[in-house]
Amino acid sequence: MNMLALLMLTALGASVEIDLAPDQPLPYIYVDDPLILELRTDEDAEATVTLSVEAAHRGEPVETTLGPFLLRGQGARWCAVRDIPHDRGFYTARVRVTIDGVVTERTSHFCRIDRLGGANPPPLYVCGPLPDERLLFALKAVAVNTQRVEAGREDTAGRIAEALAHNARLVVSLDLTQLPGPAAAAAEAAELAGPAVERWEVVVDGDPGRLAAVEEVVRESGSVAPLALVVDSAEAFRGLLNANADNYARETVLRCAPVAAPEQVRLAYRVAALAGNEEWRVHLQQCGPGTEQAPDGPAFVRGFFTGLAAGAHGTGFEPGLVYAGGLRDTLAYMNGLAHRLEGMRYAGAPPVSEDAKILLFRNAAAWLAVLWANGGKVEVGLPVSSTDALSLTDALNNPVALPEVQDGMLNLEAGELPLLLSGTGGALLGDAAETRA
User: Fold this and answer.
1) Phi, psi (5° rounding) for residue 144?
2) Class at the top of the CATH hierarchy for domain 124-338
3) Is the Cβ–Cβ distance between 182 and 174 less than 8 Å?
4) In the chain, which residues fall in CATH 2.60.40.1180?
């Protein structure tokens, strides 16, 4: 039984347990499935259940009533609820159980998401630790299969073993400012993780000399994964390159607040290029020192796409972003990302409105435009002449009706929740290319 969704209701001596989505390891429900309620009582009782569900992105509750029906003592009854919204999203469920005229109310949450199927994993990784095994189920629901593990800790071996048991990829963190023997810690992690390591994230102070010993151990282990310098700003990165840290590393991880991330990513690339490192990679880490409290779903999506547009190859996030004693709304948004990116690369920002943000990503002739308003709601006109296969969804991957194209223009109302418009070919690609030229 999914104890996290368990609601204990007591009425006139009849103890009633209600479990949301007992058929899933966590209370997430696929869009084409009904919501399952499991009811248990310690004695026979006639019950009526009123269920009100409200999607966070809609704000319009929908109510349905089940019963009256008989609950058998010491038994379980499953109720399939179909006449509630099937939109993808984060829901609040308010349950009222009436037994012998006494009403007890409780509240819980669940997510509606898509099955992953052949969805592409988004460029995300989770910054551990994972204190609850249910986090692994949450990560699988959003196709995130890369975990960061800190080397040189008592639990390092256990965490690596657990990750490998779930076929996860690993990012190994080495804090040279704290570890008494970083080279030995790197050797242990390399032996335990082997080829599962895709990056070594190294925290180093102003003197990068200790990087040499770590790099030697990593290469002797047979690992070809790059070393990445973890910094809090592009200026700190500049200082490390001035001290020749690029003799050992070829990537950077920026720990900074989401609002500052795009500019810091661009500055980091400029610093690397000026030092002669044209192939340098930059990642973002929305966790650890110098970062803000975890954002809600829409804010995370906006920050993710602005970071991606700035050139971030991957974004690390705290596990509490998707699960913290219960599911968070960001899980539904991450699941949506897995279905819409499809290998897209940033292509530019078409100059269509000063009151809205629009970012264009492409994969050959196929493209994805992500847009939202800078404040309130605003109408945005997009040139879509000669475009095929137009499709519009919200950031959760819910289909949105396309307005009629008039004189080659598609007018959309943009708000806080990003809209995702996709198509093939057409005028928008050319407009984006001009902005990057």
Assistant:
1) -90, 120
2) alpha beta
3) yes
4) 345-436
Spatial separation of the C-alpha atoms in residues 11 and 8, rounded to whole Å:
10
The CA-atom distances, in angstroms, between 139 and each of 1, 30, 34, 307, 410 are 20, 15, 22, 21, 36
Query: 345-436, superfamily in CATH?
Result: Golgi alpha-mannosidase II (2.60.40.1180)
Instruction: Please tell me the pTM assigned to this model.
Output: 0.90
Q: In whole angstroms, how far apart are CA 132 and each of 39, 129, 193, 323, 325?
A: 26, 9, 21, 9, 9
Count of Cβ atoms closer than 10 Å to residue 58 Cβ? 13
Written as tens digits, the pLDDT of the chain (437 aa) is 444 444 444 434 467 788 888 888 899 999 999 999 988 888 898 999 999 999 999 888 999 999 999 988 888 889 999 999 999 999 999 988 888 887 878 889 999 999 988 777 889 999 877 777 888 889 989 999 999 999 999 999 999 999 999 899 999 999 999 998 999 999 999 999 999 999 999 999 877 888 999 999 999 999 999 999 999 999 999 999 999 999 999 999 999 877 778 999 999 999 999 999 999 999 998 765 444 455 688 999 999 999 999 999 999 998 888 988 889 999 999 999 988 887 889 999 988 888 999 999 999 999 999 999 988 899 999 999 999 999 999 999 999 999 999 999 999 999 999 999 999 999 888 777 666 65
